[in-house]
UniProtKB/TrEMBL annotation:
It holds the Pfam family Amidase. It comes from Pelagibacterium flavum. InterPro entries: Amidase, Amidase_dom, AS_sf. Residues 39-420 form the Amidase domain. This is Amidase family protein. SUPFAM superfamilies: Amidase signature (AS) enzymes.
Length: 443
């Protein structure tokens, strides 16, 4: 558990590893590289790697020489935090690293570029009119998923070992699932949000995207300053979420989900269907809470967004102008009740499962033509966990299919290490079925 060693090559210095990552990044077409990174400064990366090679104490850290791409909403000392927006491109550089970034660097990690994202992290599809639209690692004509879009591509392309992302309604899990990666969204309170530009103070959380759950666990241990508890014998009782989380699945997701269930049943997991009635109407309440908080954060520059912002993001923020204070109070009351009900109902299970996203990655052209519907579809399942203040991982479940799908493993807040431990077991069972290394040569 919490083992980062598969990423390491004991014979390679941090500079060697950084040089290889830089070569891959600089080998991309400039427009593609710009769609993945808001800033990729090779000299800065090499300088940071060289500093680590000369620091014997940090070389002992649990993430020594691991390359981490950083979503463009985290402060890094001396860098502009533009949050994927042209509006903040001229903001003053940050005076200090965000707490999450500081913890990663203290553990020996090396920053490996600032990654693109949906503007202000307010969409689940990952498109960005300022930097370009990152494609999917399996098919560049399809979305990467968002909002940690560039982060997913930085890992899938082999540039970064880990992507540092945020998840307000699925922004780690959606791009991880659609690009054949693993991702982890912790309990919101597990990782300090200091120095991370907010979308919704009630729902924002910080987590990693990586090739394996073991790598996610190693990063979460650093970010949360916790260690996994001693492992005990467990029956591994899994609830199969029914209702809204399994409605409207496309053919591939439905087939992959049933195959995953059959695999778990064949390997001794105790599986039981479970309905989650507390999610009835959650989408509207979630929208009221997130949009209201986003509106208060961005109110001072909404006029600039009219001419220099993403119109889809602006429309989502401005939706809050139609909500009353009572609407927001009612939404928060519904959420509090749902969190309590979910915690009580989930006591009979170690974790619950559902598809991470109900469809494979849509085509970019289709999303641009039908943004509201497809963005809502991408966000539906993962945002339910944020609404319930839960924790969740995603692992690949797409077998030999040409597009990736993900299995979401989730539980009430506070059960982060249980989710990670069981997700690692499930990943091991599903991994032989899943082709997680597409031909990235398309890029």
């Amino acid at each position: 558990m919490a083992d980062i060693s598969p990423l390491r090559n004991a014979a390679a210095s941090a500079r060697d590893r950084a040089r290889r990552a830089i070569d891959i990044a600089m080998g991309l077409e400039p427009a593609v590289r710009r769609s993945v990174f808001t800033q990729f400064d090779a000299d800065r990366i090499m300088a940071e790697a060289g500093a680590l090679d000369g620091d014997t104490e940090r070389q002992k850290g649990p993430l020594a020489a691991i390359l981490v791409s950083i979503k463009d909403l985290f402060d890094e000392k001396g860098q502009v935090t533009s949050v994927g927006s042209a509006i903040l491109a001229d903001a003053p550089p940050a005076s200090a690293d965000a707490t999450a970034v500081d913890r990663l660097r203290a553990a020996g990690a090396v920053g490996c570029g600032r990654t693109t994202m949906s503007e202000f992290a307010f969409s689940g599809v990952g498109l960005n009119p300022h930097f370009g639209d990152p494609g999917n690692i399996f098919d560049p004509a399809r979305i990467s998923g968002g909002s940690t879009s560039g982060g997913a591509l930085s890992v899938a392309l082999g540039i970064a070992d880990i992507a540092l992302g945020t998840d307000t309604g699925g922004s780690v899990r959606i791009p991880a699932a659609l690009n054949g990666l693993c991702g982890f969204k912790p309990t919101q309170s597990a990782v300090p949000l200091d120095g991370a530009f907010p979308l919704s103070q009630s729902c924002d959380s910080i987590g990693p995207l990586a090739h394996t759950i073991s790598q996610c666990s190693a990063v979460h241990a650093v970010l949360s300053a916790t260690t996994p508890p001693p492992q005990q014998h467990e029956t591994l009782r899994i609830g199969i979420a029914t209702g809204i989380l399994t409605e409207g699945l496309d053919a591939q997701v439905a087939a992959d989900f049933q195959r995953a269930i059959a695999t778990l049943a064949a390997n001794g997991f105790a599986l039981t269907d479970i309905d989650l009635p507390m999610l009835d109407g959650f989408g509207n309440s979630n929208r009221v809470i997130v949009a209201s908080e986003a509106y208060r954060i961005h109110a001072s520059h909404l006029d600039r967004m009219e001419t220099a912002g993403d119109p889809n993001v602006l429309r989502r923020i401005r939706a809050a102008q139609g909500f009353t204070p009572q609407d927001e109070a009612d939404a928060r009351a519904q959420r509090a009740s749902a969190i309590a009900a979910f915690s009580a109902q989930a006591e009979d299970f170690d974790v619950l499962i559902a598809p991470t996203v109900p469809t494979v990655a849509p085509l970019i052209a289709d999303v641009k033509a039908d943004f509201d519907r497809l963005n809502g579809l991408m966000l539906r399942n993962p945002s339910a966990v944020n609404f319930l203040d839960g924790c969740a991982a995603t692992v690949p479940m797409h077998a030999s299919q040409p597009l990736a799908t993900g299995l979401m493993i989730f539980a009430p807040g506070g059960h982060d290490w249980t989710v990670l431990r069981i997700a690692e077991k499930i990943e091991a069972l599903l991994a032989p079925l899943s082709a997680t290394s597409p031909a990235a040569g398309q890029y």
